[in-house]
Amino acid sequence: MNNMLQEFNGANYIYKLSFDRPMAEGYVSADFNTLFISDMTATLLPENKSFNVSKEELKYLTSLGEGACLEINSNKKIASAFGILNDNTLYITDKCNSNCIMCPMAEPARRDGHTVPFEIQDELIRYMPCGMEHITITGGEPFIIKEKLFDILQQLKTGNKAHSYLLLSNGRVFASHEYCHKFAEVVPEDFLVGIPLHGPIPDIHDAISQAPGSFIQTTAGIKNLLATKMVSIEIRIVVSKLNSKYLVQLAEYIVQNYPNVDSVKFMGMEMLGNANVNSDKVWIPYEEAFKYISPAIDILVNNAIDVAIYNFPLCFVERPYWNLCANSITAHKIKYAEACANCKEKNACGGMFTGTDRFLANSVKPIL
Ligand code: SF4
């Protein structure tokens, strides 16, 4: 998120947002620090400090809506925001117990990165409005914080914070029946777990995750989670040079072992961090990648498994598969090439990741 409040002068870091004076006073009585907006002025309550907001800031705050939760860091940047219709993300940690060769985060961050302090997580959840459309819980690997994640899920569930959830996890932790059981006890309704599967055999998956034994753990985790019948699972396949030739085999593996997964997502790489460092090992031109993806899609679709394609611009996908392409890249990360200005499908195309654009920009083919 790139939004800032340039003139923010508050002493706190988490606020409830309000556009209505009686509501704002109600939040203060319920022990919430509150950022009350009237015209172009923000008033912090109960601090009783005011500052001006720009038209752009006002537009953003208005989009979050009454009762939203804002986390503002010491640089006046909105580090996270939770609104009823917002694309809400609860970020847990940079750290991960895998170190995927095409991860957009760099290895040092994976190893030594920041974990959001538990007291901040708890406050964010307390401040969140109830009944939000959706929350994505992500990292790093969220289960790096172990049982605390169960506590977070319980708080979200008890507080009726959202109607639907997506948890992004490498799934390894669910190889433990005990973890799976505890998870099933606290998980809110309408809960989807997105788990990456890199290949149909340990050699391929573990070479990509750079974590020996991870294929066995992840595949057991998927099986155990499906057996709980408490959550849905989407399998995420990040397509690289290392696994592209095995996608058909991987699709057959999924059909055979997990016919009741919610969906399979084929994903283009975000060429930052590890992916950038290892680009000679992982990069595959998208038009070539799609030649391997399409037969794998056919196998899944013929077996009644839903499929979507993430992060692929339309001009790298054969037209009959366009309806599977999702506008999956977060708004502030989307790039288009100069040539895209001439493309008549630009409005329908989800564009490229910033970072991946330098690998793709010269090969886009505007649709005329
Ligand atoms: S030319 Fe640009 S806008 Fe058109 S499909 Fe390709 S990437 Fe998308």
Describe the structure in brief.
33% of the residues lie in helices and 20% in strands. The chain has 368 residues and is of the alpha/beta class. It folds into two domains: 14-80, no CATH class; 88-310, TIM Barrel (Alpha-Beta Barrel), CATH 3.20.20.
CATH topology of the largest domain: TIM Barrel
- Write down the secondary-structure element order: EHEEEHEEEHHEHEHEHHEHEHHHEEEEH
Side-by-side strand order of the widest sheet: 7-8-9-10-11-12-13-14
Number of helices: 13
Strand content: 15-25%
Helical amount = 25-40%
Terminal residue distance: 33 Å
Number of strands: 16
Q: Give the averaged pLDDT, no decimals.
A: 96
**CATH homologous superfamily name of the largest domain?**
Aldolase class I
* Structural domains: how many: 2
CATH class of the largest domain: Alpha Beta
Shape: globular
Largest sheet: 8 strands, parallel
Could you say which structural class the secondary elements and strand pairing correspond to?
alpha/beta
Which CATH architecture of the largest domain would you pick? Alpha-Beta Barrel
Protein name: His-Xaa-Ser system radical SAM maturase HxsC
GO biological process, one term: heme biosynthetic process
Organism: Butyrivibrio proteoclasticus
GO molecular function: catalytic activity; iron-sulfur cluster binding; metal ion binding
